[in-house]
Structure formats: C-alpha cells, structure tokens
Task: inverse folding
C-alpha cells in the first residue's frame, strides 16, 4: 500500500488496483502485470467511468493528445488457405467473400483517398498465409507508384501480408515498409481453439524478425471470441512483452458462414473496459480502434473509447465490412479537440 493510501484508505478490495495503477502506470509509466490486468477486468461496471478516465489520463500523459489516423486497403481479398475461425476471408468456410485482387491503379487511388483524410498511415493488406513472389512484386510496384504520386509520396506505408520468411522480411524493409502488422489475435493459451492451420509461435517468430529488421511492429487481436477474462489478461501481458509500436483492437463481428457466425457480440461496457485495461498494460503504445467497433460500441462508443485510452483509428472501410464514413470520425476528433498526428518521420 502507498503512503497516501495509508493516510487516506479508499477501499481495500477492488479499488486498490486503480489506486495502484494511478501510481504505477500514470506516475511511472510502468504497465500493469497480467494479474493486475485481470483485477481491472474483474471490476464491476460501476467502476467503468473511473477506469476510462484513468486510461485517458495515462494515454494523454504518455502518448499525448494526437491521434494516429490510418487507412487500409486489401490487395488480395478472400480465398485464404488458413482456418482462422473468425475470418470471412478463409477459403475453408462458406462465407460470401471470394478471392479478388486489386490492381496498382486501384491501390494508388485508395492511398490518395486515405491521404486526403489527413491520415499518416496507409496499410496494404492481403488475405494470405504468407506472401508469394507475385504478391511481393505487386506490393513493391504499388509502393513505388504511391511514392511517385505527389499526394501520397510522404504517407507511411505499412503492410500486413501474413507470416514471413527472413528473406521476405528483408525485402519488405528494403522497399521502405516502415511498419508490419501481424496480429497474434488472442492469448497463446486460447489460440489453438481459434486457428488450427498454424501456431501462435509461428506468428510470434514473424514479429520477432520484423522487429530485428528495424521495422515497427503492429500487433493486436480480436476480443470477444469466447476467451475468458484471464485469457484477455494473458494476451495483454504477452503483447506487453512484445513491446509493439501499435496494437489494433478488433471486436469480433460474427461473420456468416464462419464457425463464429453465431457468437454473441461483445457487450459495449465489456469492450470499453478491456480496451482501457490494455491501455494500462501498454501505456506508451499506439492503441488503435480497428474492426467491429461500430457493431460493438455504436457511434457513441467510439467517442467513449477515444476518451478511454485509445489514440488511433482506422478511417473508412475495413477489409470486408463497411466502417462509418471517414468524415464522421474526423468530425468526432475535431469535437474532442484531438489533433491528427502529423507526418513526422522521413522514410
Ligand atoms: S491468415 Fe488472415 S486472411 Fe487468412 S484466414 Fe487467417 S485471418 Fe483470415
């Protein structure tokens, strides 16, 4: 117990984890441990407001008021050989998404639309186990075309192309890809229930190589896939040990045709509580709202999240689900007086 808590005993039970978090995370910038995250996740809904307020303070103190805005485009949609149970892009399920390739002009157009929103990040995504030579050469040509356009030449290009070999990691680094996204999706202990065609450890290995090659690491997951609170806490601790530059938080959208088609959508308060707990585990990370927030949280929830630890958003459409219009999000940020992060690094 802290000296101040000794003088002003607040509550000896659930309150303590937030008292400790205030000192440890807000004061010293040290993220919560797995056990502490679990204690936060077990707080009652009546503590939600207090928790969100603390997560917001932590974000403002250790990350600042700026919001990182990102657009994403899929160069290859659907037809993936893997069996991630949440994913409508798996070719193994009867989901309506079928394999489609985007050409270079389409890619450049998407980058232009993203840049026009003021976004600093543009992420090229493909639904694959890992890239083959054809995909990598298309990505290379796409990045060159983006760099050749005055409106898009300065935007940071990220990629999300599945598991990589060390040679492919080097190739992407040489293309100027500054950040690589590869989600661990869920806790190590729960992963085998979600994916059977590859392992959590294989994903971890790609992330390690990306980090070693000097690219920024973007790694997050999906909440609401049937994992327990303890597994959410485990996942937060595993992400913290990876020290990612960015963590995208998705909420499960039960996709028709997938094994998770009938899953219940995560309850809004639960989603906000989890995001705030992840902020307390990862005080300095870019924590991004990604897919599923509209369904889980509704329009108001986006704002609550931005005031509850989140400091980055994806604007516009996601990969297979329509997001809300980019302008709506940009208006929200203006209302909250949160500036969009400016481009501040040279590739
Ligand atoms: S590897 Fe990616 S695209 Fe393929 S099924 Fe899994 S999540 Fe979907």
Result:
């Amino acid at each position: 117990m802290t000296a101040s808590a000794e003088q002003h005993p607040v509550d000896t039970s659930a309150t303590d984890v937030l008292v400790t978090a205030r000192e440890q995370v807000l004061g010293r910038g040290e993220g919560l441990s797995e056990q502490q995250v679990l204690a936060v996740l077990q707080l009652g809904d009546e503590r939600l407001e207090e928790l969100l307020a603390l997560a917001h303070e932590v974000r403002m103190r250790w990350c600042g008021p700026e919001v990182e805005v990102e657009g994403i485009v899929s160069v290859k949609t659907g037809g993936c050989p893997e069996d991630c149970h949440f994913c409508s892009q798996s070719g193994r399920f009867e989901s309506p998404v079928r394999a489609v390739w985007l050409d270079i002009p389409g890619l450049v157009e998407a980058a232009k639309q993203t840049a026009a929103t003021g976004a600093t990040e543009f992420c090229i995504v493909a639904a694959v186990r890992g890239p083959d030579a054809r995909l990598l050469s298309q990505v290379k040509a796409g990045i060159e075309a983006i760099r050749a356009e005055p409106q898009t030449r300065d935007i940071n290009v990220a990629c999300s192309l599945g598991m990589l070999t060390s040679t492919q990691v080097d190739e992407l680094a040489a293309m100027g890809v500054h950040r690589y996204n590869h989600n661990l999706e869920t806790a190590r202990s729960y992963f085998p229930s979600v994916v059977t065609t590859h392992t959590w450890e294989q994903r971890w290995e790609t992330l390690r190589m990306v980090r070693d090659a000097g690219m920024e690491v973007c790694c997050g997951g999906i909440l609401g896939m049937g994992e327990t609170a303890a597994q959410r806490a485990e996942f937060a601790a595993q992400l913290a040990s990876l020290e990612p530059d960015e963590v995208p938080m998705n909420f499960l959208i039960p996709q028709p045709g997938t094994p998770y088609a009938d899953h219940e959508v995560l309850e809004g308060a639960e989603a906000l509580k989890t995001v705030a707990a992840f902020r307390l585990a990862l005080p300095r990370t870019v924590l991004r709202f990604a897919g599923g927030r509209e369904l889980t949280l509704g329009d108001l929830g986006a704002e609550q999240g931005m005031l509850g630890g989140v400091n980055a958003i994806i604007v516009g459409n996601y990969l297979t689900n329509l997001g809300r219009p980019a302008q709506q999000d940009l208006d929200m940020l203006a209302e909250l007086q949160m500036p969009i992060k400016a481009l501040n690094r040279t590739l």
Residues 80, 82, 84, 87, 89-90, 127, 129, 162 surround iron/sulfur cluster (CB under 6 Å). Confidence is low (pLDDT under 50) at residues 1-12, 318-322.
